[in-house]
Design goal:
By secondary structure, the protein is α+β, with helices and mostly antiparallel strands. It has one domain: FomD barrel-like fold, CATH 2.40.380. It has 3 helices and 11 strands. It has a 7-stranded mixed barrel. Belongs to the Ntdp family.
Length: about 180
Amino acid sequence: MGFPREGDKIQIHSYKHNGYIHRVWEETTVLKGSQHCIIGGNDRTIVTESDGRTWITREPAICYFHARHWFNIIGMLREDGVYYYCNISSPFVWDDEALKYIDYDLDVKVYPDMTYTILDEDEYELHSKLMNYPEVIDIILKNNLETLLRWIRQKKGPFAPEFIDEWYERYLTYVK
């Protein structure tokens, strides 16, 4: 089973811990693909929710998925700067159908000035009980949340000043 290559168009599937589909992004262009990391770009892509509702993303986005980290990062390019939406999640897997991960509810929204807000802590607590998250998962997720917050403060990885702009320039070469 090979990993997607640069220029391939893939779907992204988000699941919940109970195995049910949460959300599907219809089309993302792969900008970098390896067994450790997939970076993709999309703009105005169709997103389908678990209840069948659909919506279309409003701005270009660069998506960063890693096979070792329990989070993924979406950098959204808006007129007033780059906003990040970070999902605390399982590492991604690729199965020739789609890039897949489990969404564990906790999210971090990062603003262009690199301030951030942790979101959905109440949803995490509720789902942790309803879906019986094992204690080891809780520990892993909280440790990875700390790692993510350190990356934000240190401007590491996708939070580095030119990261999103450089990958967006590469994305534009595929959409022309």
